[in-house]
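Project outcomes to date are best conveyed with an example. Our students and postdoctoral researchers have been running inverse folding experiments weekly, and each run begins with a structure described purely in tokens. The record below, which covers 126 residues, was selected by the lab manager from last quarter's runs and is presented without edits.
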């Protein structure tokens, strides 16, 4: 079966493809909302700032009331330790707990031994 392509059939395909593309764009374009979300306004105003700040904590102390939602998010992010030292210590201690003679310890028991190890000073006073 031979298929003959003409310029009419290709232009028709191009038109239907263009129409399909326009319909998809229209379908997936967000509709304008009647009320403006205050969080979006806050983010836009923050992104429009042109500042150089050496002390991030001081910036958020000063600008906290203007960007109250972003300030809360910043407090969460800045509270994350920059190093992996605490997790490395946990793995190191767990490696000491689980040795060749203690491979059959239940996970909850390993956790209990880890708590005792980490809080030995407190348990020693009891």
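After processing, the design step wrote out the following sequence:
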């Amino acid at each position: 079966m031979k298929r003959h392509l003409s310029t009419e059939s290709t232009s028709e395909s191009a038109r239907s493809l263009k129409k399909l593309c326009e319909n998809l764009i229209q379908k997936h374009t967000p509709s304008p909302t009647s009320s403006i979300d205050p969080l979006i306004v806050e983010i836009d105003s923050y992104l429009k700032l042109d500042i150089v700040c050496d002390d991030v904590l001081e910036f958020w102390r000063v600008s906290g009331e203007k960007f109250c939602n972003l300030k809360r998010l910043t407090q969460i992010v800045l509270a994350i330790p920059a190093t992996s030292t605490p997790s490395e210590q946990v793995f190191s201690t767990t490696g000491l707990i689980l040795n060749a003679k203690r491979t059959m310890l239940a996970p909850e028991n390993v956790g209990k031994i880890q708590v005792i190890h980490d809080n030995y000073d407190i348990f020693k006073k009891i």
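DSSP finds seven helices and no strands in the chain. The longest helix spans residues 7-28. The training component of this project remains on track.
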